[in-house]
Amino acid sequence: MNTTPSPAHTGLVLPQDEYNQELVNNVHPPQWRNPTPSGRYNLVIIGAGTAGLVTAAIASALGAKVALIERHLMGGDCLNVGCVPSKGVIRAAKAWTAVREAEQFGVHISGEIKRDFGAAMARMRKLRARISQVDSAHRYTKLGIDVFIGNGRFTSSSTIDVDGTTLQFTKAVICTGARATAPPIPGLADTTYLTNETIFSLTKLPSRLGVIGAGPIGCELAQAFARFGSQVFLVEAMHGILPNEDRDAADIVEQSILRDGVQLLCCGKDLNIHSANGSKHLRVDSHGTQYDIPVDEILVGVGRSPNIEGLELEAVGVEFDKTGVKVNHRLQTSNSKIFAAGDICSPFKFTHTADAQAQIVIQNALFPHPFGLGYGSTDQLVIPWATYTQPEIAHVGLYEKDAKDKNIPIDTFTYPLNEVDRAILDGEEEGFARVHVKKGTDKIVGATIVASHAGDMISEFTLAMKGGLGLNTIASTIHPYPTQAEVVKKSANAWRKTTLTEGKKQFLHKLFRWTR
Question: What's the whole-model pTM score?
């Protein structure tokens, strides 16, 4: 594989092609010249991932003088090694599977079918390069932002040094994110392995792939590579997959990835890595059986560490620990002039959460409310998330176990996709919509959807929760027929049926008998 090192300090090695060159030219221009600071900035932002980019763009649009510092690649994990490349790979794997399963739709394919993994990965890199224009250094400069490529560190509560250049600020925001780190598995450090930061640089399909961790990253990529044709072994310390999800929801996805050829080794104990006969070996105990599995590549899908090194946070009194920078509900650190947003400080490490937190930072750093009420608080966020397996799992709000822990009595309504016409016609009837409401009311406190496009469908529940709308509003809203999103309305209808109590039925029976 011909490769070219990406910009200094990124830790990435990218395949050498026109698409990666375009990517680098956009998000870490090799010949970039930092501007000369002129006076104090209203806001200096360290880190140009989603949180940093959104903060910078909004602040500049509002008229603030803004500086944005990035030492690696602008766009952060989402663009370079996360959401964008992973969804490109997942889409290609889905197309390969559609060909494999085409016969059920009357498409009979004869002769040799040529599958080109390299071409699928090249498509991903091409689209990533195209999308990178939005996050480019040149675009942000045109927005009126001073973009600095280099290492930023605090030198006082009003100054930041960028490779020898001093930037003065009124307020600063830490948006340096987090990175993949490997757990202390015996033997892992003695071999080469992949993370989400390196797997998208593959140009040749590994025949045998070991995946450690059956969380969202592990499950998404295990299924995708199994669909491409790799023999995939998925190792998980806990029972089953996606341990944070409802068990019956995760079980549907588990059966799907097993059908795709993934071999699941859950309840894994005593995992260790060793090399023998030119192969890497996963040695693990799963349900009392000892396995010693040779693989060509190992993907570590667990472990994240905050990017706090080199920031000199101690010098400015910003508290942090191994989980990241400590902030209050207004995203203010222990230094009142310094804020943080995104993966560096949030337990919800999603791009859309970073976007939402950036807007909270703008409110509190540039327009601080004297009482800290309402406008800019993480307490006000309603955060959905999705795992992009096939089918997808999406969730918002509380799970049933969360409600029990919080002593919130709830009623739960679940409606299966195999009773939704469009899901049946699409051949995608595995799944359901589940909604939890405060007992005796229609107030939504949480929801889960398992469906082919659950990530798109969860937004209806999210909007209702954010807007204070209950199941009665959803039940009385007209949904187009036939769509899989009807499952949302049908789950609301399941609630509405319970409002017709026995007393109401008897009253109506008497009323209709009297009016005949």
Answer: 0.94
